[in-house]
Amino acid sequence: MTRSAPLLSLVVPAFNEVESAQDIADFYREIQATYVDVSFELIVVDDGSTDGTSAELSRRLAGVGRARIVELARNFGSHAGISAGFAHAVGDAALTLSADRQEPLSAIGDFIAAWQSGADIVWGLRSVRATRKGMDESFAKVFSRLYGRHSDIPNYPSEGPSQILVSRAVLDVLNVMPELNRNILAMAAWVGFDQRRIYFEQLPRPHGVSKWTTKRKMKLVVDSFVEFSHAPLEWIAWGGLIACGVGLLLLLAAVVTAFFAPFTAAVCLICGLVLAVGGAILVGLGVLGEYVWRTGDDARRRPVYIVRRVHGVPQSPSPSPTLEV
Description:
Layout: E1 2-4, E2 7-14, H1 21-34, E3 39-46, H2 53-61, E4 67-72, H3 78-88, E5 93-96, H4 105-116, E6 121-128, H5 135-150, E7 161-167, H6 168-174, H7 184-190, E8 195-201, H8 214-228, H9 231-257, H10 262-299, E9 307-312, E10 322-324
Parallel strand pairs: 2-3, 2-5, 3-4, 6-8
Antiparallel strand pairs: 1-10, 4-9, 5-7, 6-7
Helix pairs in contact: 1-2, 9-10
């Protein structure tokens, strides 16, 4: 008796990656040739590219295998792009990959093995990062650790996830979650299920530079905390208590120094209190504003992304692989 091989959807968000089109096609060929017991479909989400990424992908992917290109109406961001890929995936599971070809071929096998052994979510974590150590890497590690400790998601990887495989059960849940400002990886961690980890050495980017700018990183940090954590509000409360304590100490210091330099003591006391308390209030209002703004954003019920069009890529006819039982 034979049965169809499991279908794994490969989801690749791409923004201005025309130089990577051939690498994406070559990697897809390698994956299909190496893991013959699994069927694959490739879904590339063109996230509003302006350099002809979609047209080049259509040309390079012709005859490679089952593939589709989802073109978004504008650039909505990588997490919206992943969400679009998940919504269009028809596989038994979906695996995210980077457009800049930074995952080794062996990592695909590790993802598949963990999934086929029963995992619903498989986290792809970098044992070695391709970028040099610096502020970006330190920032990513600090964020992941703080987020894992202070969010409502106890199993978010503190190392900082790079890619993720999710089963059909998880896909169905994620596809109905309505958050507009989203961290799709945190959303996946939140749903629970059987979660496991694999590690791989990240490959250097062969073309161009990363589109993951500092502004995008900061927005993701805010989105992540607002979406799944009330810790910033607690930090404001603790900051208020600390400011109150500092204010009392300054009052005491002003009383003591008033006998020696009354004018200087008064000026320092007033300026210090005004700046400290005023700054704390502004920070608190800013954090509260972020929560309120995102609540309003979700209440408007705008779509996470807008699809301009979806088109398949011509493929060479080939029988679907089967597994012998």
